[in-house]
Amino acid sequence: MRRIMFTYFTSDPSSKALCSPMLLSTFSHFSLFHMAANMYVLWSFSSSVVSLLGCEQFIAVYLSAGVISTFVSYVAKMATGKFEPSLGASGAIMTVLAAVCTKMPEAKLAIIFLPMFTFTAGNALKAIIAFDTAGLALGWRFFDHAAHLGGALFGMWYVTYGHELIWKNREPLVKAWHEMRTKNAGRGGGRSD
Description:
CATH class: Mainly Alpha
Subcellular location: Mitochondrion inner membrane
Strand order of the largest sheet: 1-2
Number of helices: 8
Helix content: 55-70%
Protein name: rhomboid protease
CATH architecture: Up-down Bundle
Number of domains: 1
Membrane topology: Multi-pass membrane protein
Number of strands: 2
CATH topology: Rhomboid-like fold
Largest sheet: 2 strands, antiparallel
Radius of gyration: 19 Å
GO molecular function, one term: serine-type endopeptidase activity
Oligomer: single chain
EC number: 3.4.21.105
Structural class: mainly alpha
């Protein structure tokens, strides 16, 4: 298992995409229950995030969150010596949840099986972060607490600062990317399969 973990962080000369395992883990789930719970949370919160960010930005944030939360999970696992696979789906969904809770902290939420108990989104986010911090510190293995924390912190950061820093200033980066691709394609630097 140690070799599998190490390959995510090394550069293989035959590999063209170093982040592909972390990106693909964004769609991975541990069990059918895990997938059902994640899809319910995504369904519950995605319309709010899409109305805040728009479809294109939501997709970019969701995929980035999967990579970032998986990376945070791998770093935590390497630091603790627990070499287990990481599933970035929960971290990406935590980004969505944290983004909504950060932008709308007074929104009322309830747990599906206990709808009579309501709480604010801000309090829910604080409780989730406290739970995952305790889980990470105490070595609980029920959830990937590092991925959850990485996703939640990324979601909070993105809706607070990242939108202004990245999305609103993306035009020069997109122009430079297109110019670089055009130059490489002209020199025969295109993809060869």
